[in-house]
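ok trying this again, last paste got cut off
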Amino acid sequence: MPELPEVTALAAYLDARLAGARIVSVQIGAINALKTADPPYTALVGRQVEGVGRRGKYIVLLTAPAEGTARGEADDGGPLAVVVHLSLGGWVRVLDHLPEPKVPRGRGYIAARFGLVRNGEESGIELTEAGTWKRLAVHIVRRLEDVPGIADLGPEPLEDSFTLEAFRKVLAHKKQIKGLLRDQKLIAGIGNAYSDEILHAAKISPFAIASTLDSTAAERLYEAMRTVLADAVGHAMGLPADELKDEKRATMRVHRRAGEPCPVCGDTILEVSFADSALQYCPTCQTGGKPLADRRTSKFLK
């Protein structure tokens, strides 16, 4: 699933290409992907893209009425945002032409398509999704808070306002630290991959209970979180959309690298599997050399 660094870079890439463009067509290829009905998606036609940004793991495309363009019947003239959550298999395909009226055979699952024109140049984007579980979500809203997932989001981990003291308050929850880092209501934008990377950098077990971390460990985790995420954003920025996934895989040190040597100590990276996910960690760096039980407990194997 795309996380904070990839979504940040993807939003920046889209912003550079789409800001100032006029939306000339909108096609919804999968009605189950569209999570809102008011305003209707047709209200976007004729509007101008003001910019593309990010909140948590969501891509946010802001629009406003285009100057000199008549508003559609469904457009009340106020701000509208297209908010997209890519979920596990979703992505954005960027076109150098307007989308065709009908989706060609063999193009795969396309949830939505947008045609745009900027300075006379035509372009388009397609929201695609791989895999059998279709969870990509598109919201068209007047306010970002109208998206339930955004209304409940926790603070952004790279914002200056998210200080060490603010982080300590989050750590007061009696949760396993891996789950806490992934909890979008507590911290926005971190998922399975970067929580593995952060915990490895901080030398903390994924099963450690957040509220039991001492002051030194909490500070080490905070610095690791900020450094890992900032470095990942730096690596991803400037890359085209179709290269971002490969860049993410290439920069991972432990995530999805079970059986490989730890780049820090050389020990073998291990994995704990769950029903719908898995985590990876280094025993030497994170758990005192002891392997974690491969089940939903925090106990060590004996």
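PB: full thing came through this time. The mean pLDDT is 92.
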